[in-house]
Amino acid sequence: MLSYVQGGIVEIWKENILEEITQGILAVTTMEELFTKMRSEFGEFNEQSRKVDELRMLEQGSRICNKYMQIFKKTTRGSGYKGRPLVEEFKRGLNSGIRRRLAEVESPPSTITKWQERAVKLDYNIRQSRAKERVLGGKATVQAPIGPNAQHQGGQRPFWNQRSGGGFNAVRGSGFRPQ
User: How large is the angle between the packed helices 65-76 and 112-137, nearest 10 degrees?
Assistant: First the structure.
């Protein structure tokens, strides 16, 4: 059975167990005893350690905050984190801009629920604002040239700044004059 145990920490564990059995340090006579030994090494204690490790590695990154929050909630189950340490882990994983803005407000959130609610709202607002900036601030906006010699792309004057004929003359501001 141990020949199927390969890779990573399990490989090292297998080598240690085989060495202990060979040297007579560990006496395993049944498969049940071997499974009991495996459970004691990789069982519930290590499940909690694994959860803590996952939590320490978890960061928002490019995820929306709501997704980060849901992954965080799932990961915290069984981790043993509660109260202030839980809040600190959530804050640590947030993007620095969101974390800083929430910490600098007049009354910063104090519970995990408040941190999560406010972080999700702030992240949404930031993303909406950036999306609007991309639409309004980049090449998506068209600003009319200003002045008597203003030229549109293609070298033509705007229709309202033609030198001949009637119509609105933006230079003089005289409004519409029929010919």
Answer: 160
